[in-house]
Amino acid sequence: MTLILGLNAYHADSSACLLKDGVLLAAAEEERFRRVKHWAGLPVEAVRWCLGEAGVGLGDVDHVAINRDPKAHLLQKALFAFTRRPSLGLVRDRLANAAKVGSPLDELARALDVPRERVRAELHPVEHHLAHLASAFHVSPFEEAAVVSVDGFGDFLSAMWGVGKGNTIEVRGRVFFPHSLGLFYQAITQYLGFWSYGDEYKVMGYAPYGRPTRMAEMERLVQLHPDGSYTLGLDYFRHHAEGVEMVWQGGYPEVGRIFSPALEELLGPARKKDEPLEDRHADIAASAQAMYERALFNLLDVVQRETGLDRLCLAGGCAMNSVANGKVYRRTRFRRLYMPAAAGDAGGAIGAAYIVWHRLSNQPRGFVMDRASWGPGWSDEDLSRFVESRRSEIEDQGCRVGEAADDRELVERVAAAIAEGAVVGWFQGRMEWGPRALGNRSILADPRRPDMKDILNLKIKRRESFRPFAPAILRERVAEWFEEEDDVPFMMQVFQVRPERRAGVPATTHVDGSGRLQTVTRAANPRYYDLIAAFERRTGVPILLNTSFNENEPIVCRPEEALDCFLRTRMDLLVLGRTVVTREG
């Protein structure tokens, strides 16, 4: 038996996973345990849980894989320092950050109270983007595929591409620091007044409200090349010369200002956080999204032409751009697309672990990630006992506790409530891996109601009005409701809703007629599938509105967090396993 612990550490979205003989046993992000979004550092609690789930200790682990390799691309780093002559402050900051990163094995041993001499695991650094590629290809259903990773930066790269075949990945191209599509998009995100780490999705959601009228300016920010690569107009950015302040250790990740004063000279004054959004901001968002898509598809076209393959595995932080992902079939010659549940940095834990597994074992690939439920879970009986332990508190707050006799009674009752306008907290089984709630830690509602978006924002989410909610649809109904037909199990693509269907699901149809869908199969999630099917029998609509079970916090992990979120918000129903908590009045 070989146990491999995979880590994304000393970076945002810290995470851990555990493989046993090449099969994934457990995976979770540190933020779910720490209750701090995008938590950065060493994922001690995620490691603790993964080991506990498998019934092993740190001393039983054979190998630890981490998705960073400080020794990668030393020559390119030296050439950059020699030719670009970055500021002494940038060099000093880089050295200081590197010095903060100790030995993961030493730190884990201390944190888990394990004598260091009992930790026999070998540490394997894996290049950041290679881990991204593996996080998609090595868990995909494809025997051979083009593989592409695009993000901000990792190990002095912002992109890597090549071919995955069998249990190997051949790297054919790279984009080096300081040029980065991820940094371009993040700079525009900051310029538009969205400063929190990970706010790029807000720009993506806001873009359909504008028109791409600023493409001439965007072309000065990003230049495309015939080999698929790209370069930045560096005058508009700070990261290459002055450096950007970053906090990656022990808490919420923070990133300083990426854009230079020249960007404001080009686009006008940057929006402050408290300033209203104007038409010009929407046009800049639309233009940035269009520029990103132009650059991505320029790269994908070259990769497809050079590999001759029609299957693609896509990963990296930029692969979270579900709008662009949804256009891959329209804009390229790729005909099959796979993206993992955690395409961003968290997924690097799985990618690093599988790189090490295949290097050491040389075994054929045998694991396919077709579901996302790899986190902590509770049985129906566990959840029933938990609710009973807090029954008096629940009833004191004007709520009633009930129990469904079986799954059929449960889904019929909940489907009827949703059809009547109820907002439902739905907590089932194992927590999802990755940033999306996919039917185990979800808030569910009726997509037919034009006012449901406002209801959700009033009762629970309290987020920007321009951000869309997602449609979860029965897999076999996709072609009837969307213009594209594909498996989208992890909510990683945006498709156009068929024009004649849009009025039927206004709560999950964005202003441009699109929806970031999740396709649901009975094999992957039977209770969730049956709930949507029960809703379809009542309404004729095979779709539920699905959003993450949280209130401006990480998605809930434990039943305690689900109940607390329910009690402090205005959800109508909480479903924990087969136990139903109903708000009276």
Radius of gyration: 23 Å
Number of domains: 3
Provide a count of the helices. 21
Distance between the termini: 56 Å
Give me the CATH architecture of the largest domain, please.
Alpha-Beta Complex
Global structural class = alpha+beta
Main sheet record = 9 strands, mixed
Average pLDDT for all residues:
94
Number of strands: 25
SSE arrangement:
Blueprint: E1 3-8, E2 15-20, E3 23-29, H1 31-34, H2 44-54, E4 63-66, H3 74-84, H4 88-100, H5 104-111, E5 122-125, H6 128-137, E6 144-154, E7 157-165, E8 168-176, H7 181-191, H8 200-206, H9 215-221, E9 222-224, E10 230-232, E11 246-247, E12 254-255, H10 261-267, H11 279-307, E13 311-315, H12 322-325, H13 328-331, E14 336-338, H14 348-361, E15 373-377, H15 380-389, H16 391-396, E16 399-403, H17 407-419, E17 424-427, E18 430-432, E19 441-445, H18 452-461, E20 470-474, H19 478-481, E21 493-496, E22 514-520, H20 526-539, E23 543-548, H21 559-568, E24 573-576, E25 579-583
Helix pairs in contact: 6-14, 7-11, 17-20
Description of the structure:
The protein folds into three domains: 3-129 and 349-371, Nucleotidyltransferase, domain 5; 133-339, Nucleotidyltransferase, domain 5, CATH 3.30.420.40; 375-583, Carbamoyltransferase, C-terminal domain (DHBP synthase, Alpha-Beta Complex). It has 21 helices and 25 strands. Helix 6 packs across helix 14 and helix 7 (181-191) packs antiparallel against helix 11 (279-307). It starts with a strand and ends with a strand. It is α+β, with helices and mostly antiparallel strands. It is globular, with a radius of gyration of 23 Å. Strand 11 (246-247) and strand 12 (254-255) form a beta hairpin.
